[in-house]
Amino acid sequence: MTTAAEHIRITLDGAWRQARERARTDLDRPEFAPHYTPDLDEARAITLKQMRMLAESGYARAGFAKAVGGGGDAGGAVASIEMLAMSDLSLMVKAGVQWGLFGGAIENLGTARHHDRYIGPLIDLDLLGCFAMTETGHGSDVQSLETTASYDPGTEEFVIHSPTPSSRKDYIGGAAQHATVAAVFAQLITGGKSQGVHCFVVPIRDENGDDLPGVTTSDCGHKGGLPGVDNGRIMFDHVRIPRENLLNRYADVEPDGTYVSAIENPNRRFFTMVGTLVRGRVTVGGSAGAAARVALSVATRYALQRRQFSAPGDEKEVLLMDYLVHQRRLLPLIARSYALTFAQNELISTMDR
Ligand SMILES: Cc1cc2nc3c(=O)[nH]c(=O)nc-3n(C[C@H](O)[C@H](O)[C@H](O)COP(=O)(O)OP(=O)(O)OC[C@H]3O[C@@H](n4cnc5c(N)ncnc54)[C@H](O)[C@@H]3O)c2cc1C
């Protein structure tokens, strides 16, 4: 017989119940048990190992479009990553950066030449990447990023450069240690004219983990959480990349330096490009909700076990949950968490369409 709790879980799981159930089974393995080490190297190694286990079980493939070799289940991918947040936020962020942000940039902003070369390896973690958008000077205001990508028609290369201290890429997940390639957001300049922010594939480390010439990475170190994510900074000193490394789904630069785009208005072009990356935002909101639900579950279960003070005429002490003031603290939060879960499921459905 289905219990009331099971009914509630099925209802809250919504349309992506299967993906959520699969994540529950995967994450039930001892290798995914919470670890509280303050040692950054150890925490990062554990998180990467967990990601490799997920990759081996085909965890990430479903989220990519069928046209690029995936399973075409974008909604399932968001629900799965959200489930990781119930287990370990480091794992959720690291997986979200690799498959959602880095992979999402290659898939949504790139074309066949990028898909053929990068999607398979990044799904299997043969290629570890990072998503280098934020700079020290600009986070929310992506249009004002300062990193430049100047086209040189003589060599048919872009020159990636950090012209000011505030143009340093900052807080980039994977940049401190593991990523060998970055999806770098920079102002595209050709023929002396800036065409706005575009995304470029830029190799940053060699196979030994050392910075490539012209690239300087550094480590953001300890954070107030997420010890398993190697957030770092990147500076570029006139780093040359082939013209083909521009992710050119919405705009391209021809060999002679001519800029071409089907979207004439620069604002519309920019928002079309960043709009394709909305999945990351949906995932972050959902994951925050999932992590908060874990804390609420712990508090609720505790209140159903812990007894404090004797009740007159009763041998047993009183359960915390039987105190009205305690109920008033927890029950509205439980109600709100249900509402937010339904809202998140709606959002995923809208995104999936
Ligand atoms: C753990 C972690 C991991 C990260 N990983 C990555 C990564 O992998 N790649 C990457 O590119 N970036 C990454 N970031 C950076 C993240 O994307 C930025 O922190 C975020 O975009 C916000 O930018 P900011 O910190 O510069 O905040 P700001 O842009 O300075 O904004 C700060 C606050 O100011 C207010 N504000 C700003 N603008 C407005 C406005 N227009 N209207 C109203 N209020 C406003 C808001 O309250 C906002 O929260 C990471 C950050 C963290 C903390």
UniProtKB/TrEMBL annotation:
InterPro entries: ACOX_C_alpha1, Acyl-CoA_Oxase/DH_mid-dom, Acyl-CoA_Oxase/DH_mid-dom_sf, Acyl-CoA_oxidase, AcylCo_DH-like_C, AcylCoA_DH/ox_N, AcylCoA_DH/ox_N_sf, AcylCoA_DH/oxidase_NM_dom_sf. Signal peptide: none annotated. Pfam families: ACOX_C_alpha1, Acyl-CoA_dh_M, Acyl-CoA_dh_N. One of its GO terms (biological process) is fatty acid beta-oxidation using acyl-CoA oxidase. Residues 37-124 form the Acyl-CoA dehydrogenase/oxidase N-terminal domain. One of its GO terms (molecular function) is fatty acid binding. Residues 275-350 form the Acyl-CoA oxidase C-alpha1 domain. Keywords: Flavoprotein. Residues 130-239 form the Acyl-CoA oxidase/dehydrogenase middle domain. This is Acyl-CoA oxidase.
